[in-house]
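FW: tagging you since you asked about this chain on Friday. Here's the raw sequence from the shared folder, copied in full. Didn't touch anything.
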Amino acid sequence: MTSDGGGHRSLSGDGGAAMLEWIAALALAGGTSLATAMAGDAWEGVRGTFGRLLGRGDTNQENRSLARLDASAATVAQASAEDREAVLSQVAGQWQTRLQDFLEEYPEAREELEALVEQIRGQAPEGHAVRVTQTMSNNTIHGASFQIGHIGTAGDFTIGPKP
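HL: got it, structure written out here
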């Protein structure tokens, strides 16, 4: 990772590819975890923690993050039963993108986000899982990697108990 002197970081160099791999995996797990929490009772318990994580000590950034989180939670809450799975998948995807950008800028937040994902997994009620479908093909992972959740036979990724 390099810095351009203006506080912006770049994922270049030998470790860049390996870093992108764990960032992508953790962003997927984080986005799915957020959607899982928003759909259940865990949301109020993790909302503030996610806001603080994303704020990185900046109160204004924390408040902006909380506003985005609340807007996503409201979208989930307002979804009809027939649209719920699609809405949850959309919200998970949006937060996956945001978390990937966040982790690229703040890779030192990795352990905090991993702990939040594990906290949400531990609070997911039996039989409750958010399904997020990702299409990936011809991928090769070099170096260390990890999986949080369950990857089904069709490549479905879930947080919480196996459906």
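FW: Helices lie at 16-38, 43-55, 59-78, 84-105, 110-123.
HL: agreed, and Confidence is low (pLDDT under 50) at residues 1-10, 128-163.
FW: great, closing this out.
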